[in-house]
């Protein structure tokens, strides 16, 4: 009887160890694969978006620091703004490829003409430069 109890106790310990091993292994596999799946989803979202960048120039072709560039979503009419950097550049990212956007720059009473980033423009990173008109 003692031998039978010892065999059963050994068997239970072995089963417990195997169960714990499998739990550990499955947890490890799930946790190891999680970052890869998140990265894949982010990359897929990045592939679907586009961006636009450019520079704002004055009438005399000088870079304009501090100009306000407005990007208007023509579907929702939402407007995003960017203040140009020291070299007159601006950048908008995360734009839908299925929507047209209007860009316009303003600086100290001078404005640029509106330019359109069309949904038919298939570039992932479009370049649209804006030139300020003379003050009125």
What does this protein look like?
The protein has 136 residues and is of the alpha+beta class. The protein folds into 2 domains: 1-48; 49-131, Carboxypeptidase-like, regulatory domain (Immunoglobulin-like, Sandwich). It contains 1 helix and 9 strands. It has one helix at 2-48, and strands spanning 50-57, 68-73, 79-83, 89-95, 101-107, 110-111, 115-117, 125-127, 130-131. The strands form 2 sheets. Strands 2, 3, 5, 6 and 7 form a 5-stranded antiparallel beta sheet that branches. Strands 1, 4, 8 and 9 form a 4-stranded mixed beta sheet that branches. A hairpin with a 5-residue loop joins strand 2 and strand 3.
List the helices and strands and how they pair.
Layout: H1 2-48, E1 50-57, E2 68-73, E3 79-83, E4 89-95, E5 101-107, E6 110-111, E7 115-117, E8 125-127, E9 130-131
Parallel strand pairs: 1-8, 1-9
Antiparallel strand pairs: 1-4, 2-3, 2-5, 5-6, 5-7
Shape summary: rod-shaped
Q: Tell me which CATH architecture of the largest domain applies here.
A: Sandwich
Count the beta strands: 9
Q: Over the alpha carbons, how many angstroms does the gyration radius reach?
A: 30 Å
Mean pLDDT: 84
What is the string of SSEs from the N terminus onward?
HEEEEEEEEE
CATH C-level label of the largest domain: Mainly Beta
